[in-house]
Amino acid sequence: MKLDLDITNYAYPSRREIILGKKGMVCTSQSTAAQIGLDILRQGGNAVDAAIATGIAMTVLEPTSNGLGSDMFALVWMNNSLYGLNGSGYAPSGISRSVLNKRGVTKIPDRGWIPVTIPGAPAAWAELHRRFGRLSFKKLFEPTIQYAREGYAATPTLSQMWTKAATTFAPFYGKKEFSGLFQTFFPQGNHAPQIGEIITLKDHAKTLQLLAESNCTDFYHGEIADAIDAFSQKTGGYIRKEDLFAYKPEWVTPIHTNYRGYDVWEIPPNGHGLVALMALNIVSGYTFNRHNTADSLHHQIESMKLAFIDGKKYIADARFMKTDMAYWLSENYASHRRSLIGETAIMPTPSDPDCGGTIYLCTADGEGNMVSFIQSNFKGFGSGIVIPGYGIALNDRGNNFSMDENNDNCIMPLKKPYHTIIPGFLTKNGSAIGPFGVMGGFMQPQGHMQVIMNTIDFHMNPQSALDAPRWQWIGGKQIEMEPGFPDNIITVLREKGHDIIINPDLNAYGRGQIIWRNEEGVLMGGTEPRADGVVAAW
Where are the domains of the chain? Predict the structure, then answer.
């Protein structure tokens, strides 16, 4: 399918050249993981095999962002059809709003046992492979097991994130529930690996071997499940073997909107990809001729604010959402919210529907199959709960639950929380353009909107679309902007009432990957300049 962009178009000085390939491509934020995925393709694996192998590798090569206790979502283009897999977990059966109220909890914390949900990633790897994999499941684990046992060198961004985590978790040192975290990731006290330092994770190697040999069932009803249950009961956790045994990932129908002739696809709630689609529908009512003018930025920001404030209030486990999905994707909704946008910044408030820590990777093979894959613990090492002897860092996804009983997203046993990780996919006229994603908590739908507009409205190639400076709505009228926006544009936005903060921390703006495929089958890859990533192709 022809993309209306010039692959030589670099709107900004690029840290990397665009990478082209024909037989296969893997884009990640860790170069070694990308090479693992590419090797799987060279051995005859397809895009799904490469995505799973790369995702497994990232639990060891970038454990500051995801791990063996993560959740995972995927959009899979296979044999000219798009499939969605929701590998997020639910709250344990023993936790509820009333249970927490009795403990004096009024807000879900981000560390400890309370925010831990049942990990979905291992089961999702197995399910994805069962349906679409080609190579043996064990083979996909072999390279990562070797790196976990023999070690690998810390990369610059990984070292930076590990150092930040050391500060974050320092107050929890000595608490019994956090003992596994310090044994596994800080065995030398509060020391974080420096650039070039060798990291070994032998507990990860043991667990990965068990997962490979059991097709991941051991995690949910075997030795690993027993270990999780035992440590949970010993240290005041809520997870029990019965919760793990009952878990299964869910195949879902992807949702989409048509944006200027292209279909943009996301996983449906409990993920918040819906926010990106809502914002694109609102902003589609405007025409932009130039990139990053004060006018275009103002309308993008206002559209995102209005969509996001609704998403934060109404997105939840789809079984508990009171408003039909069609409403949020309707032109009636988009035009109503668009009508609120004027020449100055507004303080967004939710609409009334009744009146009207992550890694992202993507893969492609020479047969036209492609995968958009995202995996996360949410905030760094997640909850800080690590199962001793197994290296399983449990997520803190439950932090996104509400304690308001009137909120669709109120915590409840066996309910999935509002989820921030979202893989994206782009098609046109029923043909695949390719996978894309920008990880980073609540930055994710904002990053999706910006790279899609960079691609479609401003005709940028994948690398330029990722290189361009980004903004992020924080709340109210507050906007964080990356260095790189012209001073005169920032001045005009402030005059329009936007509270602009220049934040030089590049980690605040997410880390993305893109693969587009043209009508001749050529793969065009872009990787995040804000990370240690690479596009591996052949």
Answer: 19-251+359-400
Do 39 and 143 contact (CB within 8 A), yes or no? yes
Q: Round to the nearest angstrom and report the end-to-end CA distance of the chain.
A: 20
- Quick check: 356 pLDDT over 50? no
SS (H, E, C) 395-428: CCHHHHCECCCCCCCECCCCCCCCECCCCEEEEE
Query: Which amino acid is present at 301?
Result: I
- pLDDT above 90: percentage of residues in the chain: 82
Alpha helices in 401-536 (DSSP H): 444-456, 462-467, 487-495
The pair phi, psi for residue 252, each rounded to 5°, is -130, 160
Question: What HEC string does 268-312 produce?
Answer: CCCECHHHHHHHHHHHCCCCCCCCCCHHHHHHHHHHHHHHHHHHH
The token pair that represents 75 in the structure block: 């959009």
Indicate whether 435 pLDDT > 70: yes
Name residue, tokens 């604010």.
305
Q: How many CA within 13 A on the CB side of residue 83? A: 17
pTM of this structure: 0.92
**What confidence category does residue 250 fall into, taking pLDDT thresholds of 50, 70 and 90?**
very high
Model confidence over 88-141: pLDDT tens digits?
999 999 999 999 999 999 999 999 999 999 999 999 999 999 999 999 999 999
Crossing angle of helices 142-150 and 202-214, in 10° steps, is 160
Residue with tokens 């679409």: 132
Residue 10's pLDDT is 47
Give the DSSP H or E segment for 244: helix 241-246
The angle formed by the CA atoms of residues 57, 447 and 5, to the nearest 5 degrees, is 100
3-state secondary structure of 202: helix
**71: β partners:** 376
R_g of the chain computed on alpha carbons = 22
Mean pLDDT of 366-395: 95
* Beta carbons of 376 and 120 less than 8 angstroms apart: no
